[in-house]
């Protein structure tokens, strides 16, 4: 078994990659930065690619190369965790930089879809499990989060449609992991309330100690992904499965 994790150098992605590595599962990490600390801990299990997943041309050029094919070769079980994502731009249409919108859509939607297609095409004959890290924002609209809500909803719908395709050996789920104590949450709490009217709700979650530690959530995500029932529900919420 091998795993591919996007955004593996921080937050939930780092915790998921670390959990997989402790299970002796080789990981290919894709992120804008390289983690020297993770590489030192797991030199024989971790491979890293520095790439900006918000750049569709850069990702397309990398997928056209041989690195992914080489990593996938000869394995009968592949995990793809599409974790990388961005909450920005936050605010109404009056506040949104069009280029920031484009980068968010590329990172949050295009990159997971491109990677999913490439992994499945390059690993025929293997069992493929694809997990999109989604959000409750994909299932409920929030003021100021039109871009984030729309991109997470797109992942949910992608998973539903892929499941209907019933490609042999492919299982997929768009999973909302709950509210996690990561840099993204700190970024949300730092957003001016005029751009994100629900900011105080997230401040209160942190104040009340209701944010899950990344390591705890990562362990639950990995166990969910490795479970026999993975893919039975193409859209799911981790909080309702525990």
Structure description:
This protein is of the alpha/beta class and 242 residues long. It has 9 helices and 7 strands, in the order E-H-E-H-E-H-H-E-H-E-H-E-H-H-H-E. It has helices at residues 11-22, 36-41, 56-63, 67-72, 98-122, 146-165, 183-189, 199-207, 214-226, and strands at residues 2-6, 27-31, 46-50, 77-82, 127-133, 170-176, 235-237. Strands 3-2-1-4-5-6-7 form a 7-stranded parallel β-sheet, sandwiched between helices. Strand 1, helix 1 (11-22) and strand 2 form a beta-alpha-beta unit. Helix 5 packs parallel to helix 6 (146-165).
The strand count comes to 7
Element string (H = helix, E = strand): EHEHEHHEHEHEHHHE
Q: What is the radius of gyration computed over CA atoms, rounded to a whole number of angstroms? A: 17 Å
Strand content: 15-25%
| Mean pLDDT across all amino acids | 94
InterPro entries: Biopterin_syn/organic_redct (IPR051721), NAD(P)-bd_dom_sf (IPR036291), SDR_fam (IPR002347)
Pfam family, one: adh_short
Protein name: SDR family oxidoreductase
Subcellular location: Cytoplasm
Question: Could you give the topology of this structure?
Answer:
Layout: E1 2-6, H1 11-22, E2 27-31, H2 36-41, E3 46-50, H3 56-63, H4 67-72, E4 77-82, H5 98-122, E5 127-133, H6 146-165, E6 170-176, H7 183-189, H8 199-207, H9 214-226, E7 235-237
Parallel strand pairs: 1-2, 1-4, 2-3, 4-5, 5-6, 6-7
């Amino acid at each position: 078994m091998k795993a591919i994790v996007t955004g593996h150098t921080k937050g939930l992605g780092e915790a998921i990659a670390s959990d997989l590595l402790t299970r002796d599962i080789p990981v290919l990490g894709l992120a804008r930065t390289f983690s020297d600390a993770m590489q030192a801990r797991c030199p024989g299990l971790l491979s890293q690619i520095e790439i900006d997943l918000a750049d569709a041309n850069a990702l397309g050029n990398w997928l056209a190369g041989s690195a992914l094919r080489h990593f996938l070769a000869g394995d009968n079980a592949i995990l793809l965790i599409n974790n990388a994502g961005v909450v920005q731009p936050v605010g109404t249409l009056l506040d949104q930089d069009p280029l920031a919108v484009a980068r968010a859509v590329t990172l949050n939607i295009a990159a997971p879809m491109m990677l999913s297609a490439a992994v499945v095409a390059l690993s025929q004959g293997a069992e493929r499990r694809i997990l999109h890290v989604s959000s409750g924002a994909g299932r409920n609209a929030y003021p100021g989060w039109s871009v984030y809500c729309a991109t997470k909803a797109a992942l949910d719908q992608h998973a539903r449609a892929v499941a209907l395709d019933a490609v042999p050996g492919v299982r997929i789920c768009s999973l909302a992991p709950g509210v996690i104590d990561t840099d993204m949450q700190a970024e949300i709490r730092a957003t001016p309330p005029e751009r994100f009217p629900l900011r105080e709700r997230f401040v209160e979650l942190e104040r009340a100690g209701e944010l899950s530690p990344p390591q705890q959530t990562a362990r639950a995500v990995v166990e969910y992904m490795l479970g026999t029932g993975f893919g039975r529900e193409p859209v799911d919420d981790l909080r309702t499965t525990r």
